[in-house]
Amino acid sequence: MVARARKVAVMTYPPGSGPYGHNPQEQPGWGQQPGWGQGQQQGWGQDPQGWGQPAGYQGYPGGYPPPPPPPKNNNGLIIGIVIATIAVLVIGVAAVVLITKGKSDNDNRATGTTTPDLVTATDSSTAPSTPRSSAPAQPASGKFSYREQAKDWNFKLGDVQLHADWVEGRDDASCHDIEVNGKLTGLGCQYAAEMVYRSEGGGLMLTQYVLGMADADKAKTAIGQYTDEDLEPRPGTYIEDFSVGKWKDDSEKQFLVITLVTTTRAVNEDTASKYLRYLHQDMLGALAFR
What we know:
Layout: E1 6-7, H1 75-107, E2 114-115, E3 132-133, E4 153-157, E5 160-172, H2 183-186, E6 189-199, E7 204-213, H3 216-222, E8 244-252, E9 255-263, H4 269-288
Parallel strand pairs: 1-8
Antiparallel strand pairs: 2-3, 4-5, 5-6, 6-7, 7-9, 8-9
Keywords: Membrane, Transmembrane, Transmembrane helix
Region (Disordered): 13-71, 104-143
Transmembrane segments: 77-99
């Protein structure tokens, strides 16, 4: 600088014997239907009184026993079995439908970590099938631009109220325009964004640089490795014949922030220090939440 400024320091099956879980055996229609399997209806199998020699005809040796009774009419029993079979089939089909529906609902349910793509109501047929993350999008390059802060600076914190008018800003593809003998580039600076403000009736100017470093470690280790003699602000971005000149630097993520304040004799040092401190911290906070 012209004059040296002082540095301020998934679906699993439930337990059971089959894919549809354990079904209580006492429930009709799922386990064993009455009259199916173990139990046998009377009249089928062995009659308690037997079909050999009917009681009441003993004592007639050599004679012909009376003809057996006419066969029982089993139409009612057959109809009952048919109805029971149909009932079991209906219950089984209903169970398959319910289980299949429940499985389909789970497959279509979005997970808690993703959000489906949004489409307009007139273009629902072209909805993408792949969900995307719910995290907000960031610029693809991640580079900081002065345009993110290209406006008047209005600050309020408790009893502190500060205002500075926006003057100008620009993005530099490298750090060559603001450094002396490539000092910042040698420390890992890759590009720079400049922002300039004016306040106190033109008696105070603020010049702020956000340097894009190679990585967060480079930004952190660069602090203390240069002085104000390694900085060369452009003409018109600071008060050249300044009465007070101060600067601060800090890192946030992969960025190195350098803030300068210069004043005329009309502005005292305490006022200059206040503007410097709060503008510097405000930028660090903006980068932290970026």
